[in-house]
């Protein structure tokens, strides 16, 4: 549950920070290597204090930035990194460059549902009304056609945790194969949350038993994103240690999102799963 401890830390920091005074004295410092989320933003020096009122790299800035990394890994909005880094590690120029209100709204509307899924609310310190409405000297959102994926590509969303059934009956598996839009075979693993890599990972290729609406080139990243969005569910489903192979079923919703409906751990001694998937091509629902 390291993610939640990190997120509690940043929420506490943001809740108690004071509004930044543009008239106060600032200094420029290199962005430290441990701030991995802001290493590839296009500049190497940042202002202190930052726009959240943080002046200490060690006790405020770095812990605050690292706590947002799991949210950014979900890909909740393509400019979420730029938005957060413009506040946590603002570029060191002759003038102050804040995010525009429109950018804040765009990131908030896409990412706050993911935070809610993970049990947290959008922080009051990131209230979009505090940012400039006139888009003259602030960071603007990209055009819509560049910021969002095609509607034809299924997307994962927050959902209730699907049941995990060990050693299901042959009938249960046959029904699952018939009643769902897609059935895939994937290996899921969980690592210690100590690096810039995601805690949960889809290892190797995803195999299709029933492809349905899924796209071959997109399914691996779709399942990876599902794990990161539904991280509380992932904690209860994927245990640390060796990667576990699963038979996963799901449906495509009317709005183009996908929901996982069942996860069946694929044990070597579970003959029902092997039989059900082998006979699927000849099975009549």
What does this structure look like?
- Belongs to the secreted frizzled-related protein (sFRP) family.
- The protein has 285 residues and is α/β, with parallel strands linked by helices.
- The protein folds into two domains: 2-147, Frizzled cysteine-rich domain; 155-282, OB fold (Dihydrolipoamide Acetyltransferase, E2P), CATH 2.40.50.
- It has nine helices and nine strands.
- It has helices at residues 2-16, 57-73, 80-88, 101-117, 144-147, 170-179, 219-229, 231-237, 271-279; strands at 27-30, 45-48, 98-99, 138-139, 155-156, 182-190, 200-210, 244-252, 257-265.
- The strands form three sheets. A five-stranded mixed sheet has the order 5-9-8-6-7, with helices on one face.
- Helix 1 packs across helix 2, helix 2 (57-73) runs antiparallel to helix 3 (80-88) and helix 7 (219-229) packs across helix 8 (231-237).
- The longest helix has 17 residues, at 57-73.
- The protein is elongated.
Short description:
This protein is an alpha/beta fold. It is built from nine helices and nine strands.
